[in-house]
Amino acid sequence: MAAPKFAPVSATQTPRSYESPLHVPAPWSPGRPGEIDGKQPRGAGLGNQGPDQGYILTLARIARNKIKVQPGESVDDAIRGSIGIALRRASMYGRAPVMHDLTFALTIWGWLIDVVPADLLARRKELFSGVGDAAHSYYEVREITGLVPETTYQLSIEQLTASMPMSWRALTGA
Q1: Mean pLDDT of all residues in 43-68
Q2: Is 133 helix (H, G, I), strand (E, B) or coil?
Q3: 18 with 2: CB under 8 angstroms?
């Protein structure tokens, strides 16, 4: 093992120092099927990939108790339908999801307010009903996520909260 030059050694031993290896391996390059060579592809239906997107499930467990549902609605539907919005917002900024992204998504559809306007409630029931069933709701969640205009994603939480619930149609693209 290499030792610093000031370390005491016996007279019979010669101290070693760092030496470069004789063989330097070639740099890594993508060569397996499914690995992306170059930039992430863009296009309709491909979405915006972001890092550590699975963390949204931990955030959803934490936010579960804050969600206010009306009769005929499910907390699972609210979470599942809002996760796509939160992930899209996070990936637009090139980062993993944070609690603000999930709060943003839940605020857009009024899941965090006590008194929900009747027309928003009707639209929510129409869109979110049954999306909590993860096995059969991919396209429904994509539809909910796609409804929200790009301009809404650029708002801060404070701007969004100030606009809700009066401007829910403009914020959700309804």
Answers
A1: 86
A2: coil
A3: yes
Question: Structure pTM?
Answer: 0.72
- The pLDDT of residue 111 is above 70: yes
Region of 51 (left: φ > 0; alpha: ψ -120 to 50; beta: rest) is beta
- Per the CB < 8 A criterion, the answer to whether 56 and 83 are in contact is yes
CA distances from 137 to 25, 35, 71, 142 (A): 46, 27, 21, 9
DSSP 8-state class, residue 98 = -
Helix/strand/coil percent split, the chain, to 5: 45, 0, 55
Report the C-alpha gap between 98 and 60 in whole angstroms: 10
Residues 6 or more apart whose CB falls under 8 angstroms from that of 29 comprise none
Tokens of 112: 């965090």
Distance from C-alpha of 57 to C-alpha of 15, rounded to nearest angstrom:
54
Cβ(78)–Cβ(109) under 8 Å? yes
Q: What is the DSSP letter of 90?
A: H
Nearest in space to 102 (alpha carbons), one of 148, 135, 67, 138: 67
**Dihedral over Cα of 112, 118, 124, 130: its sign:** positive
